[in-house]
Amino acid sequence: MMWGAAGQCACYIFISALLSQTDDPANGSKFGAGATAFFFLYYVFFGICWQGVPWLYPTEINSLAMRTKGAALGTASNWFVLFKYSCLWAHRA
Questions:
Q1: What whole-number distance in Å separates Cα of residue 8 and Cα of residue 3?
Q2: How many domains does one find in the chain?
Q3: Domain interval for residue 4
């Protein structure tokens, strides 16, 4: 996971550097396209390294007897929080 975090950090550094150069009239769109590519690469790192943490961590920290209940609680809380966020932001749009 640390390599994934380092990859995400590098992507954001490149995104910041490329977006700072988009004011150039001749090559601004090329820098913007490069920044967009690094956004996609960021999500590749996120998906490979960090995406499974909310699903796997509650299962692994519990004892064998409580493992299924921990997985159920982790899944339910993840679903509930994301549902509440989506309802909150749907009214703001």
A1: 9
A2: 2
A3: 1-51
